[in-house]
UniProtKB/TrEMBL annotation:
One of its GO terms (molecular function) is ATP hydrolysis activity. Pfam families: ABC_tran. It comes from Heliophilum fasciatum. PANTHER family: ABC TRANSPORTER, ATP-BINDING PROTEIN (PTHR43335:SF4). Keywords: ATP-binding, Nucleotide-binding, Transport. It comes from the Bacteria. This is ABC-2 type transport system ATP-binding protein. Residues 4-232 form the ABC transporter domain. InterPro entries: AAA+_ATPase (IPR003593), ABC_transporter-like_ATP-bd (IPR003439), ABC_transporter-like_CS (IPR017871), P-loop_NTPase (IPR027417). SMART domains: AAA (SM00382). Transmembrane segments: none annotated. Gene3D superfamilies: P-loop containing nucleotide triphosphate hydrolases. Belongs to the ABC transporter superfamily.
Length: 266
């Protein structure tokens, strides 16, 4: 059974934007990365999968159940890209509020509070108001909120965007720890370095269309192609110099080079 499966999933806003015809299969227990430039449709896809947006057409299941199934959504944690928390609440109060919304018992609440605050490095800041947190600390408390109900499936939309390099490394270590605990992690990012260091598989999306899905290592080994666009003057100059396009051997040395070539050439 797949953790996430979509078949020709489409969400459009009128006739513009969104995502179109997305067919994905995310293995259970994997860290799966969705890669694409800003505005590619990554957040739209995630919001459909967590039930915040209704699909236009197609099919989608999470943990073997339709995305509209409440029992499946109870097993999901979500950190949105653009989030704002109640600035007057302390970190602990914010987590307690989320715990009530999740329906945690008092016993579960106490057990989970200490654990997640320690994991995200905010145990000593739990009595501090969220409004005084730095951007990185707010990102961490967001991760704590997503992790609080001990979900089987975590959706994280740009989870390290406000963090410094040390913070990013710490979050990568946490993701690997959560994977070892059996969780499936669906990670949205436009940072290639974040995905190629941690993800088992990736999907590449551009302008709402799925370009690739699979092991990023296999993607990096694919034959590289680069399209060169020249105006007439440049083409004539190349001919005068005797340049033959067959003599040109483009090289993409990294996943980032390949991704940029794909985005420019597709």
């Amino acid at each position: 059974m797949w953790a996430i499966e979509t078949k020709q999933l489409t969400k459009t806003y009128g006739e513009r934007g969104g995502c179109q015809g997305i067919s994905l299969q995310v293995p259970r227990g994997s860290i799966f990365g969705l890669l694409g430039p800003n505005g590619a449709g990554k957040s739209t896809l995630v919001k459909v999968l967590v039930g915040l947006l209704h699909k236009t057409s197609g099919e989608a299941t999470i943990l073997g159940r339709p995305v509209t199934d409440v029992s499946a959504r109870r097993r999901v944690g979500f950190l949105p890209e653009n989030f704002r928390y109640h600035e007057w609440l302390t970190g602990e109060d914010l987590l307690r509020l989320h715990g009530v919304l999740f329906g945690l018992s008092a016993r579960e609440m106490e057990e989970r509070l200490d654990k997640v605050l320690n994991q995200v490095g905010l145990a000593e800041k739990r009595k501090q108001k969220v409004g005084t947190y730095s951007k990185g600390m707010q990102q961490r408390i967001g991760l704590a909120c997503a992790l609080l109900p001990d979900p089987e499936l975590l959706f994280l939309d740009e989870p390290t965007s406000a963090m410094d390099p040390v913070g990013r490394k710490e979050v990568r270590d946490l993701l690997l720890q959560w994977q070892a605990e059996g969780k499936t992690i669906f990670l949205n990012s436009h940072l290639l370095s974040e995905l190629e260091t941690i993800c088992d598989q990736i999907a590449v999306i551009k302008e709402g269309q799925l370009l690739y899905q699979g092991d990023w290592r296999a993607l990096a080994k694919r034959p590289k192609q680069v399209r060169v666009v020249m105006d007439e003057a440049e083409l004539e100059r190349a001919r005068m110099l005797g340049v033959k396009m067959d003599d040109v051997t483009p090289v993409a040395e990294s996943l980032e080079d390949l991704f940029l070539a794909m985005v420019a050439g597709q």
